[in-house]
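Practice problem 4.
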């Protein structure tokens, strides 16, 4: 029989054994253990933001596409495409891809290439983007062309296409009763001519005094006449009393070019008008710039030059309102167009920044657009530009509450301006006329100087005109010598659909372009060429050069 000590030891061992069993069971029954979180394997992907994209038919244009990915990727083409350049062939993660058209599509049919983006480690299916380039339409046909002038110098600055197919052109002349020019008063005079639909001269008129009188802009009035503005330092002849320096000189003509009234406006310093328009309320509004300061007709000038806008009555030239706008720098209004509500939009350039009436600018000189009511009150004021210099010369009313502005830029990929083609470029902007918001912008040109001077809008899009010194590079083809007329047709989204250089072996400079009733266009400027290239016989010095042309997109 076990003694008491042995029995007690056996009891303790039994309790320890049972306790060890219970302790072993405790994690499963007595408490919860945290679960281990297992991460799923990464889900790789690569895709484009579109399956198909159309690039412009004209060389020099660019389109951006976007690659969405979370890994390294590479780009391949389905075939060699010498008409398309890619700025990169590999990348990591989300990125952009720039497609640049290097050749016009003159093949007669649409051409395509497929771009494939695939992950370098093959973790996901590749993505494909079909790039389509439509046929480039460059069928610009000259309907007729005309050289007009005398033995001096003639420069055509403004043209109006009339509903009956005729055209009225305003420019300057230093000839006197010679060639196509009638008797002049002295120095440089206004020269206004009317051509019929075939380019035949219907009538011509000269206006001026003993000094220099240079027209800037012409507009048709609802009564069948014309409003004309320019600058004058004359003090006799057709011109009234000079206020000092050069003044605004505004003429109202009847349908056959006779003066109905005339008006000298200005101060003791120089006042240069550049644009004239007729509002939907019938007022004649002139825009330019003034260096005068609270003298004569001019109010408060805030800097070296300010915008100066003057509204006149159509029937007598009496002043309705006038307005100076600017900052502590130099502001020069160069164009004006009417708005549907009876107001106007004034365009030019500003060197002030966040000063006076001028908003913040991006660089030295920017486009400056101001919308005014029919009473001259400011609706909005906007600047556009880059770190270089921009100068606005032309405005046109577009569709869907938009307006189109053109001029010159020397900026490059900065601020609002895209990539420069070289030196000065045409700069075309489309703006919401209700808010002043920028819709799109376009730089156009070649490696030399390209000067955008005028813009017109017709049912099929936008026509931009000026002159170029570039030759067979970028957007410019076939410059025949010196500077040539350079005209482009754009869709409403800014895509170039046709382009044309016209000229001879000397200098041709286009200053104004207008869309005609038949959907074609007329361009005017000056030529020094004599019977070369596209230009006929010259009368001496510089002559008016008038070209009516049609395009296959009309």
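Answer key:
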């Amino acid at each position: 029989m076990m003694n008491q000590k042995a029995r007690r030891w056996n009891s303790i061992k039994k309790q320890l054994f049972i306790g060890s069993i219970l302790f072993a069971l405790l994690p499963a029954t007595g408490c919860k253990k945290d679960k281990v979180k297992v991460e799923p394997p990464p889900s790789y992907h690569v895709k484009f933001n579109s399956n198909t994209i159309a690039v412009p038919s004209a060389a020099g244009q660019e389109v951006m596409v976007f690659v969405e990915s979370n890994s390294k990727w590479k780009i391949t083409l389905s075939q060699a495409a010498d008409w398309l350049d890619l700025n990169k062939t590999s990348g990591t993660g989300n990125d952009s891809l720039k497609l640049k058209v290097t050749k016009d599509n003159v093949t007669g049919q649409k051409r395509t290439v497929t771009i494939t983006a695939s992950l370098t480690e093959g973790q996901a299916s590749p993505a494909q983007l079909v790039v389509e380039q439509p046929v480039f339409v460059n069928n610009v046909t000259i309907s007729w062309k005309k050289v007009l002038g005398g033995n001096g110098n003639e420069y055509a600055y403004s043209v109006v296409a009339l509903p009956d197919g005729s055209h009225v052109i305003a420019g300057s002349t230093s000839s006197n009763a010679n060639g196509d020019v009638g008797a002049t008063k002295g120095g440089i005079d206004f020269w206004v001519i009317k051509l019929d639909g075939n380019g035949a001269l219907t009538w011509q008129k000269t206006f001026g005094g003993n000094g220099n009188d240079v027209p800037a802009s012409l507009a048709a009035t609802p009564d069948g006449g014309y409003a004309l503005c320019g600058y004058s330092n004359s003090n006799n002849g057709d011109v009234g009393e000079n206020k000092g320096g050069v003044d605004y000189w505004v003429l109202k003509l009847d349908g056959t070019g006779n003066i109905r009234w005339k008006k000298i406006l200005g101060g003791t310093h120089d006042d240069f008008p550049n644009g004239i328009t007729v509002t939907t309320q019938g007022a004649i509004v002139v825009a330019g710039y003034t260096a005068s300061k609270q003298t004569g007709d001019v109010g408060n000038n805030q800097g070296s030059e300010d915008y100066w806008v003057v509204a006149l009555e159509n029937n007598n030239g009496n002043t309705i309102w006038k307005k100076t706008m600017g900052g502590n720098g130099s502001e020069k209004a160069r164009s004006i167009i009417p708005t549907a509500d009876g107001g106007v939009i004034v365009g030019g350039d500003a060197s002030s920044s966040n000063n006076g009436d001028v908003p913040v600018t991006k660089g030295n000189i920017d486009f400056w657009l101001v919308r005014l009511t029919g009473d001259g009150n400011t609706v909005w004021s906007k600047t556009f530009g880059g770190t270089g210099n921009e100068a606005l010369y032309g405005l046109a009313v577009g569709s869907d509450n938009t307006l189109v502005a053109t001029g010159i830029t020397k900026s490059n990929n900065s601020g609002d301006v895209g990539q420069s083609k070289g030196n000065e470029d045409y700069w075309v902007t489309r703006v919401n006329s209700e808010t002043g918001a920028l819709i799109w912008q376009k730089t156009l040109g070649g490696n030399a100087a390209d000067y955008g001077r005028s813009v017109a809008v017709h049912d099929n899009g936008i026509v931009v005109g000026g002159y170029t010194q570039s030759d067979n590079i970028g957007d410019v083809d076939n410059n025949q010598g010196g500077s040539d007329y350079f005209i482009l047709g754009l869709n409403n989204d800014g895509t170039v659909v046709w382009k044309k250089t016209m000229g001879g072996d000397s200098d041709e400079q286009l200053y104004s372009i207008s869309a005609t009733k038949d959907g074609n266009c007329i361009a005017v400027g000056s030529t020094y060429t004599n019977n070369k290239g596209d230009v006929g016989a010259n009368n001496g010095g510089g002559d008016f050069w008038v070209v009516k042309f049609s395009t296959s997109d009309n």
